[in-house]
Design a protein that fits this description.
Blueprint: H1 7-63, H2 65-68, H3 71-103, H4 152-158, E1 168-171, E2 174-175, E3 186-187, E4 190-193, E5 199-201, E6 206-212, E7 219-225, E8 228-238, E9 245-246, E10 251-255, E11 265-272, E12 275-277
Antiparallel strand pairs: 1-4, 2-3, 4-11, 5-10, 6-7, 6-9, 7-8, 8-10, 8-11, 11-12
Length: about 280
């Protein structure tokens, strides 16, 4: 039989229940407020760090504006981007090929170098890089592909070059120092000083892929053959048009001082797959 509570007991229990509920809500509210304060403080610290980084980048850009916004710097950034993209594609291809191999026979290892399969009779094995004479009715093994131009040595053996002008070398390839603020520290070509109006000839046979008057190069011409490009910059007059076939030694322009230039000269470049190499390794200036 349920015991009847007196009025004072009912009041005491009601007060206890009220106290417990309020105390629990206060604890929960305090925990949420503490967590909210920590989150706010962390976000504020991250925001201040980002602001400091942006300020540092802005100061760096202002101090180095004469170099950052030059065409050579932008070309170098594009080259780094291309290099990173090629390396990333190579890594993806490696893991994709590895996964395909694991799905097949685990005992088979693929050799990435081009080799000839072993013959049943050792005397019938074909040496590498040997062209096989075609015999009617038999399968013919193709000869090895022609080597691709990748460096100065292979370039000298593959393509003929002549000097674009007779001039004095005033700035070589690579790192350099200059008293002029508009001259960058990394030189992607070679500068040949000559009097204004002297004729410039094509250093190699190829196709004119660019004739432009814009940018730090001023009036400039690009002539390309396969993956090789020669560039002639700061010209005064240009005698060729895009798409025109040019032969080695043909007059294409005259010496000038257009664009980012400190005097009449020819800025001459040789590039392999758009990567500049030292022209002095190809031509004796």
């Amino acid at each position: 039989m349920e015991r009847t509570l007196r009025d004072d007991e009912k009041i005491r229990r009601a007060e206890e229940i009220y106290y417990r509920r309020n105390h629990r809500n206060a604890v929960l509210s305090h925990g949420r407020e503490t967590k909210r304060q920590k989150t706010y403080l962390g976000s504020k610290i991250i925001l201040e760090m980002l602001i400091l980084v942006l300020l540092a980048l802005a100061v760096f850009a202002v101090k180095n504006k004469d170099y950052i916004f030059t065409k050579d710097f932008l070309n170098n950034c594009a080259q780094y981007n291309i290099n990173l993209s090629e390396k990333f594609d190579f890594i993806l291809a490696y893991f994709r090929e590895k996964e395909e191999n694991e799905q097949g026979n685990n005992d088979i290892f693929i050799n990435h170098e081009t080799t000839n399969p072993p013959a049943d009779n050792p005397s019938e094995a074909v040496p590498e890089n040997t062209q096989v004479v075609e015999v009617p009715g038999e399968e013919v093994q193709s000869s090895s592909p022609q080597s691709v131009i990748t460096d100065a040595n292979s370039l000298k053996n593959a393509i003929s070059f002549v000097k674009p002008i007779e001039g004095i070398v005033t700035s070589g390839f690579g790192a350099r120092e200059s008293v002029y603020q508009n001259v960058t520290g990394e030189h992607t070509g070679i500068d040949l000083a000559a009097e204004k109006g002297r004729k410039i000839v094509a250093s190699m046979t190829g196709t004119v892929t660019q004739v432009s008057t814009e940018g730090d190069y001023g009036n400039h011409i690009r002539i390309t053959k396969e993956n090789i490009t020669t560039l002639y910059a700061h010209c005064q007059d240009m005698y060729v048009t895009e798409g025109q076939e040019i032969t080695e030694g043909q007059e294409i322009a005259s010496v000038g001082s257009t664009g980012n230039s400190t005097g009449p000269h020819l800025h001459f470049e040789i590039r392999i797959d758009n990567h500049p190499i030292n022209p002095a390794e190809i031509i004796a200036f």
